[in-house]
Amino acid sequence: MNAEASLRLFLGLWPSAEVLEQLVAQADAWTWPAPARRVAPQELHITLHFLGSIPAGALPSLRAGLRAEWDGCVLVLDRCAVWSGGIAVLEASELPAPLERLHAALGEDLQELGVAVEGRRWRPHVTLARKAQGAEPPPPAQGPPLRWHAGPSYALVRSLGNGRGYETIQTFR
């Protein structure tokens, strides 16, 4: 890859096999409209920071400059929603302090590296589908909230674009 190329990157958390199974079951319980595009199971994740297009030449300093550490935590995904733009999500109504600290520490690392971070409030969520306007989530009484034992690792990930999925560049522990 030539140094002038750019990579579409983000930092994210990937679920364990057990949590992934629960996420898929949750998505299966929704009623989806015809145009809905469900996210493939291997792509279900929580985005910590979306970095956007980063020059490929900046990748070594980015990999070396991400120093945030954490021990993990339990994240309770207890709310189904369809956001504007037809994004169907499973989200947390409360942000655990350890996850909030990780997000903040990664934001500081990124700013030190000259990477812009979003100014709006971070809402941890798993995107279940796109183009899902009119989707109906399952009734709240259908099972307990999903408990995700997140961490202690996070990943620097490249979006391959055009629906081709993701490539993990580096996992940080």
Description:
- The protein is an alpha+beta fold and 173 residues long.
- It has a single domain, classed as Cyclic Phosphodiesterase, Chain: A, CATH 3.90.1140.10.
- Helices cover 20% and strands 34% of the residues.
- The chain contains three helices and ten strands; from the N terminus they run E-H-E-E-H-E-E-E-H-E-E-E-E.
- The strands form three sheets. It has a four-stranded antiparallel beta sheet, covered by helices on one side.
- A hairpin with a 3-residue loop joins strand 5 (79-83) and strand 6 (87-91).
- The radius of gyration is 16 Å and the shape is globular.
- It starts with 5 loop residues before the first strand and ends with a strand.
Main attributes?
173 residues; alpha+beta; Cyclic Phosphodiesterase, Chain: A; 4-stranded antiparallel β-sheet; 10 strands
> Order of strands across the widest beta sheet?
3-1-9-10
CA gyration radius, whole angstroms: 16 Å
CATH class assignment = Alpha Beta
Q: How many strands, what sense, and barrel or not for the largest sheet?
A: 4 strands, antiparallel
Task: Give the helix level as a range of percent.
Answer: 10-25%
The count of domains is 1
The CATH superfamily label reads: Cyclic phosphodiesterase
What is the second-level CATH architecture?
Answer: Alpha-Beta Complex
One letter per element, helices H and strands E, the order comes to EHEEHEEEHEEEE
DSSP strand count: 10
Point out poorly predicted stretches: none
CA-CA gap between termini:
27 Å
Outline type? globular
Report the sheet-strand fraction.
25-35%
Supply the helix-strand structural class. alpha+beta
Overall mean pLDDT: 94
What fold name goes in the CATH topology slot?
A: Cyclic Phosphodiesterase, Chain: A
Count up the helices: 3
